[in-house]
Amino acid sequence: MKRCIGKNLTLAVNNILVNYNDEGPDNAEVILFLHGFPFNKSMWDMQMENLKEDYRVIAYDIRGHGSTEAGNDDFSIDIFANDLIGFMDKLELKKVILCGLSMGGYIALNAIARYAHSFGALVLCDTQCTADLPEVKEKRKKAIEGILKDGVEKYVEDSIPNLFASESLEAKKQEIDAIREIMKKTSAQTLCATLQALAERNETCSKLSAIEVPVLVIVGKEDKITPPAASRQMQERIQGAHLSIIAHAGHLTNIENPNEFNTQLKQFLHHFTQEASGSNVSVNL
Ligand code: MLT
Description:
Elements: E1 6-13, E2 16-23, E3 30-34, H1 45-51, E4 56-60, H2 77-90, E5 96-101, H3 103-114, E6 119-125, H4 134-150, H5 152-163, H6 166-171, H7 173-185, H8 188-199, E7 215-220, H9 228-237, E8 242-246, H10 253-256, H11 258-276
Helix pairs in contact: 2-3, 4-5, 4-8, 5-7
The chain binds D-malate.
């Protein structure tokens, strides 16, 4: 298929139209970004801008989020991962470097467990390999009831303080407003269906030792949703994985401290691409 380059492109995948951005040189390594819940592909804008000179950078809106259609199927992490594989097949992408934040990380871990050969490296940001504990499932159930009773806006305002480090709530007002707007545009139907999918997801901790590609685990020091301990647990189980704990950041590390996030990501990518090309250059991660 002839490549289209730009923003807000569309592609038919698994009976839905997926909206995506695809920028950077044709023959460069591909980095594919998966956003968290309930955001959209624009949460990766700062990384796409920063990397697009040297890498082909792609981000798409997950089913029901942003400008991608919701379709008729029940949401699940399996179906989100099937969409990822369908999307990659359509664009003929092989061995991509997959970078997922939180729910994006759940999808990445699900996909690599089933389609290991499709990925060349993995970046797991502010995510975890465990399934929801009963009390978290209960909180999600209450959240669904709350959305149906009080609407999307209240859910969004209740969620914001948990997403960011307390210092970001003061220092990053513009970025937080942008996230707030994205969240508010998400339909109640998508919010509820995704909360249900998150509650029903399977653990992937038992699959981590089978991962053979280079892995970078990134987490905000103040992440309250998927705290550093969850990242350390993943790093310890993945052979050779590197862990970066980012200061001045909560759950949305790439937005709260983009400079440090981009530095860590670029260092990892540089190391990975040198290795892939067979060079002997050694970089201290
Ligand atoms: C996310 O950012 O994707 C969510 O916080 C994930 C979750 O609630 O488990």
